[in-house]
Design brief:
The chain has about 350 residues and is α/β, with parallel strands linked by helices. The chain contains eleven helices and 18 strands. The structure holds pyridoxal-5'-phosphate (PLP).
Length: about 350
């Protein structure tokens, strides 16, 4: 069997989504966050499609190496910054910006003999308690950094939200207040991620940092990217490789978790958790076949899944089956699997064939 699972990346959707972010935050510069291989869509491909962004955000220096090798000459920000002295060499060689969130990093920069100025994003912790300095230290930290000859004057002050996908919760407003209270008003500020760009006008400061929205993804409960005017940038599909008649009362798949309520047609689709489709997606999880919903029955296995064909008498071997994409929001699959859309697109495995189109 040749593999049949395809992830099609819609370059037009990526471009549309960047425009949508610009419409929502017309006064802000946009950092396109393309960590985790562009949320699973392909790092270089996404960077090329989003060349209209003002900067790219990545998790690691290695991503910066790949982007520079691909000829991307944008400003690139390493979101967790440097870990060891040797990183500074590479950061300079590649011309990367670094986030500074810890005293350990300031010590490395202070000890660095190279006089060429580094571009820094100073990260303060306004309530997420992951990375960042206490906001009360902001003024002193800026003075400390400015005193260093090898730090560029153009420092950006940044922070990150923990709960901007819950717009009714007070946590984001509180983080915004702490961010404002940190002062340093002369510096460019950056705090908004995708959900904040959509919901919190006050968060649309000098720089916004859009990740999920650019891929048409939402992490909000009961919402999908399309509800906010974004278009899905990935369609995952495979095909039907068998259609079988199974008798009433017989059980389907590993563990026999599904018992056929009728004599019925069962379709077998060539995709499974070995491709990154979540095994936790239970009976009832939707797929699309010939323009209509069908549903998974039984347990998703490594290479295959079974679907109920009782309402699909017209189905044929080799018919395409859409697992998520334009007509089937990945957010629905994520909800069925007990996770978020980001984890699903990031989890596509290497054996899946990637295609692109311009839509
Ligand atoms: C991942 C990330 C973002 C983007 O978040 P989305 O919710 O995907 O928009 C922005 N800023 C930082 C620091 C991040 O780690």
């Amino acid at each position: 069997m040749s593999r049949s699972a395809f992830a099609t990346i819609h370059l037009g959707a990526l471009r549309h989504n960047l425009e949508r972010v610009r419409t929502l935050a017309p006064k802000s510069r946009v950092m396109a966050v393309i960590k985790a291989d562009g949320y699973g869509h392909g790092l270089e491909r996404v960077a090329r499609a989003l060349s209209g962004a003002d900067a790219f955000g990545v998790a690691a220096i290695a991503d910066g190496q790949r982007l520079r090798a691909a000829g991307i000459d944008h400003r690139i920000v390493v979101l967790s910054g440097i870990d060891e002295a040797g990183d500074l060499l590479e950061v300079r060689r590649l011309g990367l910006d670094i986030v500074v969130h810890h005293d350990h990093q300031i010590a490395l920069i202070t000890a660095d003999p190279d006089p060429r100025p580094l571009r820094i994003w100073l990260k303060i912790d306004t309530g997420m308690h992951r990375l960042g300095f206490d906001p009360t230290r902001t003024t002193a930290l800026l003075a400390q950094l400015r005193a260093l000859a090898n730090v560029h004057d153009d420092i950006v002050l940044m922070s990150h939200f923990a709960r901007s996908d819950e717009p009714a919760d007070a946590a984001t407003t509180q983080q915004l207040a702490r961010f404002a209270a940190a002062g340093a008003t002369a510096l460019p500020h950056s705090i908004a991620n995708s959900a904040a760009i959509v919901h919190f006008a006050d968060a649309r400061t000098d720089w916004v940092r859009a990740g999920g929205a650019l891929y048409g993804l939402s992490v909000e409960h009961d919402r999908c990217g399309a509800d906010d005017g974004f278009r899905p940038a990935m369609s995952l599909s495979s095909k039907l490789i068998a259609i079988n008649r199974v008798a009433k009362g017989e059980r389907v798949g590993y563990g026999g978790s599904y018992a056929c309520p009728d004599d019925m047609a069962v379709g077998v689709v060539a995709i499974g958790y070995g491709d990154g489709y979540p095994r936790s997606a239970a009976t009832g999880t939707p797929v699309r076949l010939n323009g209509r919903d069908a549903r998974i029955i039984g347990r998703v296995s490594m290479d295959l899944m079974m679907i109920d064909l009782r309402d699909h008498a017209d189905a044929n071997i080799n018919d395409r089956v859409l697992l998520w994409g334009r007509d089937l929001p990945v957010e629905r699959i994520a909800a069925a699997a007990g996770t978020i859309s980001y984890e699903l697109t990031c989890g596509i495995t290497r054996r899946v064939m990637f295609l692109e189109d311009d839509t």
